[in-house]
Amino acid sequence: MADLEAVLDEAGLTNPKVREFVKEYAELTGAEHVEVVNASDDARLLEEAVAAGELQRAGEGRYYSRSYYKDTARSEERTIVATSDEKDRGVYNNWRPASEMKPMLHDRMRGASEGKTMYVIPYLMAPAGNPLEPWAAGVELTDTRTVVLHMIRMARVGVQFVNDLEDPDSFVRAVHVTGDLEHLGQGTPDDQRYFVTVADERTILHFGSSYGGNALLGKIAHGLRQGAYDGWASRKFLAEQYMLIGIHDKETGRTYHVCGGFPSASGKTNLAMMAAPDALGDRYHVSFYGDDIAWLWVDEESGRLMGMNPEYGVFGVAKDTNETTNPNALASIEEGTQAIFTNVAYNPTTGEVWWEGRTPKPPSNVKGWLDWTGAPLADRKDNDTAAWAHPNSRFTTTLDNVPNIAPDYDAPAGVPIDAIIFGGRTRDREPLIRAITDLAEGVYDGLTLGAEATFAAEGVDGQLRYDPMSNRPFMAYGEGDYARHYLDVVGAAKEQPIFAHVNWFQKDPDDGHFLWPGYRDNLRPLLWLLQLKNGEVSGRRTAVGIIPTEDELDLTGMDVPAADLERILTIDKERWQQEMGFREEHLSQFERMPEEIWEAHRRVAADLDAED
Ligand code: GDP
Ligand code: PGA
Ligand code: MN
Ligand code: MN
């Protein structure tokens, strides 16, 4: 491409290392054009995408897209962390040698963008000026315009983020090539897709998908996998699949910051967008910092554990989002927000969108409606009960649209962390909340997080599995080393956060209803946790943590059946004793697991046996 230098000049992309990187991959992929993207290009790119049929209008200032029907979730099996050192092999990171994976990906990418435009997206995964900024800059190259539009919503995008790097080489090189989606053998033995993070080279090579979780490289590959690796290699920080919220108490004037890891599609976004329950809204306000990723570090001056959200938008699960469960989410995706929906049901005549749980019943007049695959609902047979929207259908919107966005979400300093919680979909055993005051026991608890897998990953929906720290799909290096690093980072803080394990998903074993209404009411157990930290309540001690007594939990304005409440505030001792055996097996798989973690395990097991 003879005019590449001129294109980069005109775009004001001055970093010589970025220019070399662009050139290398423009040649390899055979792209016909190169275009450098800034956030200010959004309106034009939206118009182009509509004109090209890649997006449709969903009313004014709102858009609809459909991904290929075999390309609707993250593929964990095809996701690989590669390095040059086999010591980086973990149980979950699908480690492979960089020397094997890089050439393989280059082969797949060779010529695969012929005739297409390669977009150059410079981005920053941090608020500008944050202490972790040296690890936050990146450049994603992609051959798909809708990926660009999603990246503009999900990350801070613009050439200024890479032009002025102190070390011009210190950006993550992220390459996304979609490939011929109809001929990639998704899910067959001949699967052509590969999603590789070459972590020790800070290079990300993803081939074979345009679904957000595989294609938005700033978010998942850099924000989580590469971030985790860099945080460990530099000994400076943690990159976690955490939401991050502020809980403001108007009566005392205090704001607490709580972060926490739940596996994909297990409640992070809903918790972060939470409107306090009506009965508590006069006193408490929940503010949104982040809903999927938090980077944590210890501030050198204050010695406090700090956190920030490296993202700039929300990639939320649509299912069950409605006025009752999450009014803030609905407000963030109204017309005029420039939000993009993916794989929901759509009515091209009226521009409406719908998903399961949006309203109790689907629109009664199916005329004009298309399901997520694009098939007219009017043509369906009466006994066809397939969902209208894909269970992993999503909305994408920027943080400016989130009504409860924290006023200081963009502050370079980040916020001090008071509590770290873990949770997941667990139908039995796990109570509503159990608090843990000891660091090693908190980390042990995170490492043994067991939950049902969800539709956010291909082919595992509903399987009960361990998902350490909710990071199983994003683990970048060995789990034992990870535990050591976690203990070191958090242990260096002057004031320790309180830990807790929460579960909004316990079910009645007989009729299967959720024992806790969840959503906005999840604020209540969190308030109890903060009161416990402040010494205002004392709870009930059990072997697996401190549990609220019924009268400590503020249930004003709620109506939970007594039997349900009792069940979610009780420990099932036998079930837990059985669980300890599984945990032992689980932890034994990991090399170099710190002795503190084993000690915590033995302490919990002994306390369980001693309980009557
Ligand atoms: P994330 O992927 O972890 O951010 O999870 P989301 O907040 O997007 O929620 C995933 C799914 O779980 C959505 O369908 C939500 O409606 C549902 N969900 C979230 N919070 C709760 C809760 O407290 N109770 C119940 N029953 N469902 C919830
Ligand atoms: P989620 O984000 O955790 O909000 O579902 C996307 C993902 O993890 O795939
Ligand atoms: Mn996630
Ligand atoms: Mn989410």
Task: Jot down its keywords.
single chain, 612 residues, alpha/beta, Phosphoenolpyruvate Carboxykinase, domain 1, Phosphoenolpyruvate Carboxykinase, domain 3, Phosphoenolpyruvate Carboxykinase, domain 2, 9-stranded mixed β-sheet, 26% helix, binds guanosine-5'-diphosphate, binds 2-phosphoglycolic acid, binds manganese (II) ion
Tell me the layout of helices and strands:
Layout (H helix, E strand, L loop, with lengths): L3 H7 L5 H14 L3 E4 L5 H10 L4 E2 L4 E4 L13 E5 L12 E2 H12 L7 E8 L12 E6 L2 H10 L1 E2 L2 H4 L8 E6 L16 E5 L4 E5 L4 H4 L1 H17 L3 E4 L1 E8 L4 E8 L6 H5 L11 E7 L3 E5 L6 E4 L4 E5 L9 H6 L6 E4 L2 E3 L4 E3 L39 E5 L16 E2 L2 E5 L9 E4 L2 H9 L2 E3 L11 E3 L12 H13 L6 E5 L20 H11 L6 E3 L2 E3 L14 H7 L4 H16 L6 H16 L2
Parallel strand pairs: 1-6, 3-19, 4-5, 4-10, 7-9, 9-11, 14-24, 24-28
Antiparallel strand pairs: 2-3, 6-7, 6-8, 10-11, 12-16, 13-14, 13-15, 16-17, 17-23, 18-22, 19-22, 20-21, 25-28, 26-27, 29-30
Helix pairs in contact: 3-5, 11-12, 11-16, 15-16
The structure holds guanosine-5'-diphosphate, 2-phosphoglycolic acid and manganese (II) ion (MN) (2 copies).
